[in-house]
Amino acid sequence: MPLIHLFSRRLYLRIWLAVVGGVAVLTLLVGWAWRVAAEQNAQQQAAPPARELVLRDGEGQTLVAGLATRMPGPPGEGLELRIESEDGRAYSLQMAPRANRGERSRGRADAAFWTRPPFGFVWMLGLVGLAVAVGVFPIIRRLFKRLDVLQHGVQRFGEGDLSARVPVHGHDEVADLSRQFNAAAARIETLVQSHKSLLANASHELRSPLTRIRMGIELMGGSQPSPAFRDEILRNIAELDQLVDEILLASRLDAREADVGTVELVDLVGLAAEECARVDADLDASAETLEVSGVAKLLRRAVRNLLENARRYSQGEITVSLRRSAGMAEVRVCDHGPGVPEALRERIFEPFYRLPGASERAGGVGLGLALVRSIAGRHHGSVHCEDRAGGGACFVLRLPLQAPAQA
Hints:
Elements (H helix, E strand, L loop, with lengths): L2 H7 L1 H36 L4 E6 L5 E9 L8 E7 L4 E6 L6 H14 L3 H40 L14 H48 L6 H28 L8 E5 H12 L2 E4 L5 E5 H18 L5 E7 L2 E7 L33 H11 L3 E6 L5 E8 L7
Parallel strand pairs: 6-8
Antiparallel strand pairs: 1-2, 2-3, 3-4, 5-7, 8-9, 9-11, 10-11
Helix pairs in contact: 2-4, 4-5, 5-6, 6-9, 7-8, 8-9
């Protein structure tokens, strides 16, 4: 692979090169500033200011008096002063270097050769650039290895492996992106599995009433059907119609963008009273009105499904109670049936799931409670099942009293 393609396809190499290049430019600027300062310092040392000098003999008599100027010379070669006396004569004063100082001076001169401009900042550039290149590359490579893992996970997911997930390490932006991908992937996998299950179970449930209708028509053989036979055909048609209606409603509730009705204020007390009268259930309301914001036909469907489920399993009266609880409207539908085992209280809200031994009961296709949960979620509420004191089950539907943004 050409080098330019390698850098264009590897983001970590481009970031690493940008960091190294930035440090190199910074080092060049520092070296240039150092060189300018060194040149100014050299100019100052090349022409030192003259100083007054007086040379006397042992008796205190002045021999020479004038201005002394230090003459430039290589380091380690001693000191030379040029003296200009008051009478215009010029003298030269030379002092030899110390005996064991010459070697040290030559050593410093050799070292100064490598540290003074232009070699000094070149060495600085090389050392700093090498340190940055060696130190930054593993850090950047480690970071982008996690992005490579995320990329492979997204690729697997896009190729159809809905179970693909990526490991989450740390708490930075890459970890947050990994968590968001895993959450989105889990949601999509759940939706796809739900739709597959809905399709498979719908096909099975639709087959049963259609088979019974077909067999009835074949047995009838063109003769006039009896009233009982006619009632059986109508019951199967009604079951088929209910199943199709519930499947369509479940699909629309799963599609968040689907229009399911107009949001308005709904009086749960009045709605529950109408539904209780339909199935002869007892109503216990602590308030005259209990209004929530939502789609009236969906809320009515949720209450009706809970009442029909209770009527199907109850062996006694059915009670519906409405309360306010912590800013929520609470609808409790209690029956005197066999109850729901604790281990199955979540599964009964799955589409087409029915309790063991209940699949042959009249009515019900296993979508009623799943629709109640979908309707509750659409209204930012919840539903759960709990035991009823004295035997039976209570289904609790909770809806916010404040108006949600949309149903």
